[in-house]
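We were asked to recover a plausible sequence for a given structure. The inputs and outputs are reproduced exactly as logged, with field labels preserved.

PROBLEM: sequence recovery
POSITIONS: 88
GIVEN STRUCTURE:
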């Protein structure tokens, strides 16, 4: 997944906090390019986490893209927030 040039730090931070809480992971392991697989988060758990993210940020992710890293989730959230705040 592509990086978002203007990814709000607070979006990444919130995603990291949610990952830490949901999966009981230490924050220092949740670097932006950290692989979800290496964190022990499989594809099903990642999809379920996206549902939690949607609820938290009051967004809807139109597709269920493959997310491979912590940053991928933050980029997905930022893109959905931008799209839904300024619909085309």
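RECOVERED SEQUENCE:
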């Amino acid at each position: 997944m592509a990086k978002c040039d203007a990814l709000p730090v607070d979006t990444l931070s919130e995603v990291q906090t949610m990952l830490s809480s949901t999966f009981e992971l230490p924050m220092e392991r949740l670097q932006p390019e950290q692989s979800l697989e290496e964190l022990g988060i499989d594809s099903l758990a990642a999809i379920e986490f996206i549902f939690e993210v949607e609820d938290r940020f009051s967004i809807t992710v139109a597709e269920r893209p493959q997310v491979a890293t912590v940053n991928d989730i933050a980029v997905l959230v930022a893109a959905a927030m931008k799209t839904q705040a300024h619909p085309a």
